[in-house]
Amino acid sequence: MKKRKLDYLRVLALLTILVGILYFYANIFSPGSIPRIVRIGTIRQPINLLILGTDLNFNEQGKIITGMEGRTDSILLARIDPIHYQVNILSIPRDSFVPIPGYGWQKINAANVYGGSNLVKETITNLTGKKIDYFIEINPFAAVKLVDLLGGLILFVEKDMYYVDRAQNLYINLKQGRHKLSGKDTVAYARFRHDATGDIGRIERQQKFIQTLFFSFAKPLNLIKAPIAIGIAAKYIKTDLSLLKIIRLLNFMRMLSDKDVLAFTAPGEVSSAEKAGSIWQMNKPELEKILSTYF
To answer: Is the pLDDT assigned to residue 26 strictly greater than 50?
Structure first.
């Protein structure tokens, strides 16, 4: 009887070890297959995350001016919902003409120059009526280094792209087709806007770039690079997310597929304003429809 009890304990121990191994394997290679009730290490409540991509400032000699906030080259409001397993992303064109608190009606990309991320958050909250829980500010250096860490990103370049802006140290020369782009070329692809689609075309490319980057880091073989990625983030990315929150957020993102991510652009049309030149005039009723339905 004692021997039979001992055998039961051995079998139970082996089953426990086996379940632990299977859980670890699934968490690394197929996190979406784990039942939601036993998932750990992910965010539990929905959050609104503001993602900012900033320009660098250069002097006449082409050197970076440090200690000076750049304009926001890209502005994205992400609604990350672990309850419904959905991520909705709203891109706000950089030329959107909006009231910036304390500075009046201006292009929204100037808010970061005037008051940093806090003023951008206040401006976005006033525009959308949505509370911003956290923010991430990424400059081109971070994007270049993260892509190079992955060994490049495979993206389809929709058309030949050529543009030179020496003031911004920007050199774009990409050929149409599916390519594995380096970090520098990927950032060039995401920043290009000198065609008929202008800033709206660039927004679509930025959305594709961000999704591709997220899902590339989610691949099991790239998880071993996470410590290096965190080091890059600490050096080149500003955020008020804690390290634990970042890890939980990334773990949640790993459980998503392409169909779980919806991307929108704040609706409007090209117009002009005195002293501001070409602007993006928001269509507030259409924007409200998107916000009320998806955010």
So the answer is: no
- The tens digit of pLDDT for each residue in 130-166 reads 999 999 988 888 888 889 998 999 999 988 888 887 6
Residue ranges per structural domain of the chain = 2-37, 46-294
Query: Edge to edge, what strands does the sheet with 134-138 contain?
Result: 237-239, 134-138, 47-54, 72-81, 86-91, 261-265
- Give the span between the Cα atoms of 39 and 43, in whole angstroms: 10
Greatest Cα pair distance, the chain, in angstroms, is 92
218 has pLDDT over 60 = yes
Residue type, 182: S
Q: Which two tokens stand for residue 158?
A: 């929709």
User: How long, in residues, is the chain?
Assistant: 295
Dihedral angle sign, alpha carbons of residues 253, 49, 72, 128: positive
Q: What is the DSSP letter of 31?
A: G
Q: N- to C-terminal Cα distance for the chain? A: 62
Higher pLDDT, 60 or 164: 164
Three-state DSSP class for residue 41: coil
Please name the fold of domain 46-294: Aminopeptidase (3.40.630)
212's CB contacts (< 8 A; 6+ apart) are 153, 154, 155
Report the pLDDT value the prediction gives residue 25, as an integer from 0 to 100.
Answer: 45
**Whole-angstrom Cα distance, residue 204 to residue 184?**
18
- DSSP output for 212-253: HHHHHHTSGGGGGGHHHHHHHHHHHEEES--HHHHHHHHHHH
Which amino acid type is present at position 22? L
| 186-197 pLDDT tens trace | 888 888 877 766
